Amino acid sequence: MLKLHAKSDLQLTTQDREGKMKKRLLVILLMIMVFLSGCWDTKEPERMLYINGIGVDYKDGKYEVHAQIINFANVAKSELPPSNQPQAEVGFATGKTVDEAVFKLYHSIDQTVYWGHFSYLVVSEEVLKNVELSPIIDLFIRYRETRYQIWVYTTTDPVQEVLLVRPVINKAITLSKLGDPENSFKQESFINPIDMRKLIIDMNEPSHEAMIPLIKIMENWKSIDESIKAPVLSGVGVATPNGFKGFIEGDDVRGMQWMSNETKRGQVTFKSDGDEFITVNVEKVKVKVHPVVQAGEVVFDVNVELEGIVSVIQGEVSMDELKKGIMKEVEKEIKTTYEAALKKDIDIYRLSEDLYRKNVKAWKQYHKDGKVELNEDSIRNLKVKVVKLESLRKSIQETIE
User: What stretch or stretches form a coiled coil here (predicted)?
Assistant: First the structure.
């Protein structure tokens, strides 16, 4: 009996220990749950303001920063927000550096600013002419909230005016041409958009020149109540790590789209033999550049292949005549752009990079500061060929004669 009694006491002691252990584990779990239930560093969305666009100007030796803050209450639920409420407001501040101007801007902002939706940066002509881009780029990409896919533009118009432009039919401002350029680029590839990642690459690699899309404000839309201003792509501003080389715009910049494999869609307008204007849509561009070293200098052979669609026909015209007209006009536009850029010492087609990629030994021999010397004869051969031409109709004759 004594042995049984002793065993019973031992069992009770073990059960007590297990019970106490379970209680301790329960207490620890409860404490952990209490700590996990709160996120002290989380900020409520309604207590933050969201940056969509930034404009930087330079006046009287100081930077002027313009910040476009968007109202997500108007854009989060629908692509077409209520028209009676502003989608964005723009504030500005000045400083001896861009960083100082940003911090001065915080003085007048009511809530914490969130930079994770920062979509585009606009720099003025004065910024490109008078200061380096590097400190401005560094400031914005070093925020842990920002991304490298921030679109970059330049303008000769007031920066604040660019940020105050609203999309046509009051579409969500996050889907504007500035904030979402790839969408419209698929339909009309006049100027290639550039983000900060591509800008840094172009600055660092031959020929150390970046083509920044030039935005101008035009009042070319109207509603029942008002005229509407819209941002228009009108050319490129060419920036280098050490300065600014100027703008190429208007008809002088049209050749860029035919020298880029990224082109999705463009148009060519020319006169037929019957003295009628014809427009052809170009749906695909394929460019090959072959650098050649001859007689102690570098020249380039360029082949451009196009695929087009004819949608409108005026007068009698043959397929051969259409192809001939397209090739002649595209070749003319490529040369016009090249010559306009050459006057400003701009390697508009980045021919120096082609030599660097395909013959680095020759590039090391002939480059100066990463760039190969170019002249009017540097493009030795330029061949434009229409490899495919279709009509949206079954024939290429006029519908009504």
Answer: none
Long-range contacts of 94-100 (CB under 8 A, 24+ apart): 94/59, 94/62, 94/63, 94/64, 94/65, 95/62, 95/63, 95/65, 96/61, 96/62, 96/63, 97/63, 97/135, 98/56, 98/63, 98/65, 98/135, 98/136, 98/139, 99/139, 100/63
Q: What pLDDT, in 10s, does the model give residues 150-160?
A: 999 999 999 99
Calculate the alpha carbon distances from 227 to 173, 221, 224 in Å: 18, 6, 8
Separation between Cα atoms, residue 326 and residue 386, nearest integer Å: 8
Distance between alpha carbon 77 and the CA centroid of its chain, in Å? Answer: 25
8 Å CB contact between 210 and 199: yes
The domains of the chain are located at 44-241, 254-401
The CATH H-level (homologous superfamily) assignment of domain 254-401 is Nutrient germinant receptor protein C, domain 3 (3.30.300.210)
Q: pLDDT digits over 27-62, tens only?
A: 777 766 655 555 555 566 667 889 999 999 999 999
Amino acid (one-letter) located at 317: V
Average pLDDT score over residue span 82-97: 82
The number of beta carbons lying within 10 Å of the beta carbon of residue 22 is 10
